[in-house]
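Hey team,

Filing this mostly as a record. A colleague (T.K.) asked me to run one chain through the structure pipeline before their review meeting, and I want the input and output archived in the tracker in case anyone asks later how it was produced. No errors, nothing strange. Just documentation.

Input sequence:
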Amino acid sequence: MVPNPFGREPCMSSSPTTKSTTNTVTVATLAAFSDAWNRHDIDALMSFMTDDCVFETAAGADACGTRHVGSAAVRKAFAGAWEAVPDAQWRHGVHHVDGDFGVSEWLFTGTAADGSRIEVNGVDLFAFRDGRIARKNVFRKARPNLPAAS
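Output structure:
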C-alpha cells in the first residue's frame, strides 16, 4: 500500500493503489467523466471505474467520509447524489493528471430538498489503474446553503 500523507490509514487500508501497467487516463478522460456526472448517466460513469473501485464521499461518520467499495456499492452511491439533489451539476471543471493520480476541481450547484441553493467548490482526488478510475475521493467546502431562488 502507498503511504497516506494525510494519516487516515483506517479508511484507506484496502484502497486499490497498484501501479498501472497499461492504458493512460488523460485530462480528456476526466472531462468525459465529469460530463457523465452532469448528464446523470450512471452507466457512462461506471464505465470509467474499475470493478473493485472505491468511492469516498465528502460527508460521513468516518474521517474519510463514507466509503463505498466495489462497483455495485459505488453505483448506488453515485445514483444517490442525484436522488438527494436532482438538479446536481459539477461546473467549471479543471482537470489534472500525473501518472496514476488525478485531480478534478469543480463548482457544485443544485437545489436542496428545502428549496435552498447549493453552490460550493470542491475537488475529486483520483487513483487510476489500467486506464480506469480505481478510487474517487471527494472533498467539498462546508458552506451554508443559499436562500431559495425567488
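Quick notes for T.K.: The chain has four helices and six strands. The first strand starts at residue 49 and ends at 56.
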